[in-house]
Write a structure and sequence with these properties.
By secondary structure, the protein is α+β, with helices and mostly antiparallel strands. 46% of the residues lie in helices and 18% in strands. The chain is globular and about 50 Å long. It has 9 helices and 10 strands. The termini are far apart. It folds into 2 domains: 65 residues, 2-Layer Sandwich (Phosphorylase Kinase, domain 1), CATH 3.30.200; 171 residues, Aminoglycoside 3'-phosphotransferase, Chain: A, domain 2 (Alpha-Beta Complex), CATH 3.90.1200. A hairpin with a 3-residue loop joins strand 1 and strand 2. It has a 5-stranded antiparallel beta sheet, with helices on one face. Bound molecules: adenosine-5'-triphosphate and magnesium ion (MG).
Length: 249
C-alpha cells in the first residue's frame, strides 16, 4: 500500500487518506493492543445511534500496525467553526446534541473509565492525600453506565457533504459518567485558548441536559489530574490550579 496523503501527524502516528479509506499508521513498537483496542472500540460504537465510520481492517505495514476505516467526505466541526463564525451557535447545538445522544448509547462492552483514570492518577505527581481523595471519588463513577468518548472536541466531529454528523477518534471511549466527558471537553476548549467558547459550551450543555453545572464542575479536578502527566509543559500550571479547586459538596 502506497501512503502519500497525510492528514494529521503526531509523534506516535500518522493519519493518511487513500482511495476513500483512512489509514491510522502507528510507529514501530507502538503497543499492538492499543491499535486493536481502538479498532474494537470504534467497531463497538458502529452499532449505535451515532454515525461512526466503519472499521475495514487492522493490518501490519512494513512492521508497523495500522487500522483502516472508511473515509467520511466532509469537514470537521473545528474547520466549520473557523470558516463560519456566524454559525457558531448552530454548530455548538449540533456538537452538544450529539454528545448527549452518544452518552445514552449502550456502554456495557466498554472498559470502565474509573479504572483508566485511577491508574493514571495513581502514578501522577499529586500528593498522596489528594490521590487518595480522588480514588474515593472515582468509586462513585462505578454507578454510571454512560458512554464517555474521552476526547470529545470539534476536531473529532465530521459533518459530511449531506449534513450528516459523524463522530471519530474512539481511542479513549469508555463506560462512566457523562459529566466527566463534559468536564474534559470544557478543559479541552480552555487548553486550546477558547475560554469564551468553553463557558458557552458548558452553559448550553446544562440547559439541554439533566446534568447540573455543579456536578460537571465537581469532575474537573479529577479530569485535570487524569490528563496532567500527558499535557504540554506550558499547560500544566492551568491544570494544577484546577486540581486544587475545592470540590463543591
Ligand atoms: N473516517 C474519517 N473520515 C474522514 N476524515 C477523518 C476520518 N478519521 C480521521 N479523519 C481526519 O483525520 C484527523 C485525525 O484523525 P483522528 O481524530 O482519528 O486522530 P488524531 O486526532 O490525530 O488522534 P488523537 O486525537 O488521538 O491524537 C481528523 O481530525 C479528521 O480530519
Ligand atoms: Mg482527533
Amino acid at each position: 500500500m502506497k501512503l502519500k496523503n497525510v492528514i494529521s501527524k503526531r509523534s506516535y502516528k500518522t493519519v493518511y487518506v487513500e482511495d476513500g479509506k483512512i489509514i491510522k499508521l502507528f510507529v514501530k513498537g507502538y503497543p499492538k493492543t492499543n491499535v486493536f483496542n481502538e479498532a474494537l472500540n470504534q467497531t463497538r460504537m458502529e452499532g449505535s445511534e451515532i454515525n461512526v465510520p466503519k472499521v475495514i481492517e487492522v493490518v501490519e505495514i512494513d512492521g508497523c500496525w495500522a487500522f483502516i476505516s472508511e473515509e467520511i467526505k466532509g469537514k470537521t466541526l473545528e474547520q466549520l467553526m473557523i470558516e463560519n463564525p456566524d454559525k457558531l451557535d448552530e454548530y455548538l447545538d449540533i456538537f452538544i446534541d450529539t454528545q448527549i445522544l452518544m452518552s445514552k448509547q449502550n456502554s456495557f462492552l466498554l472498559n470502565p473509565l474509573a479504572h483508566r483514570m485511577s491508574r493514571r492518577i495513581a502514578r501522577s505527581e499529586l500528593r498522596a492525600t489528594t490521590r487518595y481523595d480522588f480514588q474515593i471519588r472515582l468509586e462513585e463513577m462505578e454507578q454510571f453506565h454512560e458512554v464517555v468518548h474521552g476526547d470529545y472536541n470539534p476536531s473529532n466531529i465530521i459533518i459530511d457533504d449531506n449534513g450528516k454528523v459523524w463522530v471519530i477518534d474512539w481511542a479513549h471511549v469508555s463506560e462512566g459518567n457523562a459529566a466527566a466527558d463534559v468536564a474534559k471537553t470544557y478543559l479541552w476548549f480552555n487548553l486550546h485558548d477558547q475560554n469564551e467558547l468553553s463557558e458557552k459550551y458548558l452553559k448550553r450543555y446544562v440547559e439541554k441536559s439533566v446534568i447540573e453545572e455543579k456536578f460537571i464542575r465537581n469532575w474537573m479536578p479529577l479530569v485535570a489530574a487524569w490528563i496532567l502527566d500527558t499535557a504540554l509543559e506550558e499547560k500544566k500550571s492551568y491544570l494544577r490550579n484546577i486540581v486544587k479547586q475545592e470540590i463543591m459538596r
